[in-house]
Write a structure and sequence with these properties.
CATH topology of the largest domain in chain A: Rossmann fold
Oligomer: heterodimer
Helix content of chain A: 25-40%
CATH class of chain B: Alpha Beta
Order of helices and strands of chain A: HHEHEHEEHHEEEEEEEHEE
Number of domains of chain A: 2
Number of strands of chain B: 10
CATH topology of chain B: Rossmann fold
CATH superfamily of the largest domain in chain A: Bacterial phosphonate metabolism protein PhnH
Number of helices of chain A: 7
Helix content of chain B: 25-40%
Strand content of chain A: 15-25%
Largest interface: A-B, 55 and 45 residues
CATH architecture of the largest domain in chain A: 3-Layer(aba) Sandwich
């Protein structure tokens, strides 16, 4: 055994920013997270040059998965061009040399804040979701040690009570985003603050989803072909946002999740939230040959 | 175009190994190619001084020791690597974590021969419906023992290695011997 065999060559910085031991820990934890779908796995959550709460969890998973051949797409609330998405995309490209894209169909790795793209993801794609609060039980149990025990016991009665109270008070479930969902019939997870519109896209999907919370130091995952069932009562069906009839004023895309743009006269116009889908729709209507993938929702209805 | 770091051989190899492992574990029963045959890469990809490792093979023990991991008995190990198929009794003593901390369950890496031997039917997360594979060179009673000792969400993960091929079997997968 020589000194040479015990050391590594000097490098100006680690590939993909994270050092090898941080990557190994995330590898171990993501594997366990896949093995127990929906269960939150604690991890160390290293420092990255970005403030906690701005997607550091997702960024660390992306940095671990990335290699020079990984095509990366980053979205923030559906948009590729918002500040958070653009900064993360540029950072990932700079630390890895990986090519970037805005096209969902061309991406290998999609890091997303609070949306799942409208085009169906394939089995060779990995979706990394940034999670601000990984604990679905927090509104009903602020003590995370007790919440962990409740997960261990599959004691989710208070989640049902919370939904029941919302229905009694307001006539419907008021949970707009982060709709609590039962994964593989065992763990209730938060799907990250994606709209209700996006939760059915996780159910029996072809792609792997990794959800990572950097500030809260938790990773959970939804493997492909895994049941993800929003918590609902038998007689009060799950409802997605009523965006099926809306048309995007800029692109003419119809039947997708929309951003509402309030107007001075008190009315609203709508714009498709998945910005790349809007761009593709505009370009194809201008006569370009654009490959628009199959979408999860067709004519405003989730395809079965 | 700004300069970016160039991945070292070690980084390229461990990244590709991780990619194969994560793909294999999220799709139980489907075969994935490792960048190189053998288990040494998997040791380097996953294990470091935070781990407690058991190896049933001298060469792998050297690789494991070099990562700084503690070498322990099978019942205390979080990662186990075997050069020859262990007996079914091993599964009874493996770490399975607890209901509160299921991530403390062990990861077991075994050699096998894919495409020969008894037929298994897999169901569970990651499997589209059900899937049948043939796995040989595994100790008799191994799958029955696995089913008997594990109670989800406690349990352990198994990676089956045949040359450069890998199959992942997470604890969530139901295995039926046909």
């Amino acid at each position: 055994m020589s000194l040479k065999s015990l050391t590594k060559d000097w490098e100006p910085m680690s590939y993909g920013f994270l050092d090898a031991s941080a990557k190994r820990e995330i590898r171990r934890k993501t594997l366990k997270a896949i093995a127990v779908p929906g269960c939150q796995m604690p991890y160390a959550s290293r420092e990255v040059p970005m403030a906690r709460g701005w997607g550091t969890g997702g960024l660390q998973v992306s940095c671990t998965l990335i290699n020079p051949k990984t095509t990366v797409k980053v979205i923030d609330q559906g948009a590729d061009d918002s500040v958070n998405a653009a900064s993360i995309r540029r950072f990932l490209a700079r630390v890895s040399g990986a090519p970037t894209t805005t096209d969902t169909l061309k991406a290998d790795l999609i890091q997303s804040r609070h949306r799942i793209p409208e085009e169906v993801l394939r089995e060779d794609q990995i979706l990394v979701l940034q999670v601000p609060n990984p604990e679905p039980l927090r509104p009903v149990q602020p003590n995370m040690s007790i919440a962990r025990q409740m997960h261990a016991d599959a004691d989710y009665g208070r989640m049902w009570l919370q939904l029941y109270e919302q229905i009694v008070r307001s006539g419907r479930v008021m949970q707009g985003a982060s709709y609590p969902s039962l994964v593989h019939g065992r763990f209730v997870m938060t799907p990250s603050p994606i709209p209700r519109w996006d939760v059915p896209k996780m159910h029996m999907a072809k792609h792997l989803t990794i959800l990572s919370a950097g500030r809260e130091k938790r990773i959970h995952a939804v493997p492909p072909f895994t049941r993800v069932e929003p918590l609902v009562f038998d007689d009060v069906p799950y409802r997605v946002e009523e965006h099926g009839d809306l048309t995007c004023t800029r692109s003419g895309a119809k039947g997708y999740f929309m951003n509402e743009i309030p107007q001075p006269d008190g009315t609203s116009t709508y714009e498709v939230s998945d910005s790349e889908l809007g761009v593709k729709t505009i370009r194809s209507s201008e006569g370009e040959t654009i490959d628009i993938g199959q979408t999860w929702y067709q004519n405003g209805e989730m395809a079965q | 175009m700004t300069a970016h770091p160039i991945p070292s051989d070690f980084e390229t190899r461990t990244n590709a190994t991780y990619d194969a492992l994560i793909w294999a574990l999220s799709r139980p029963g489907l075969v994935r190619q490792l960048p190189m045959p053998g288990q040494a890469n998997i040791v380097e990809t996953l294990v470091d001084r935070e781990c407690a490792v058991h190896t049933g093979d001298d060469m792998l023990a050297d690789v494991a020791r070099r990562t700084g991991a503690t070498i322990v008995d099978p019942d205390a190990a979080d990662h186990l690597f075997f050069g020859n198929a262990p007996t079914a009794d091993l599964l009874g003593i493996l770490r399975q974590g607890t209901d509160m901390y299921p991530e403390e369950g062990a990861t077991l890496v075994l050699p096998c021969s894919i495409g020969q031997g008894p037929k298994l039917r897999l169901t569970g997360p990651g499997v589209d419906g059900s899937l049948e594979i043939k796995i040989g060179s595994i100790a008799p009673g191994f799958w029955e023992k696995r089913r008997a000792v594990m109670r989800y969400p406690m349990g352990f993960e198994i990676f089956l290695i045949d040359g450069a091929q890998v199959i992942g079997l997470p604890r969530s997968t139901e295995i039926e011997v046909l």
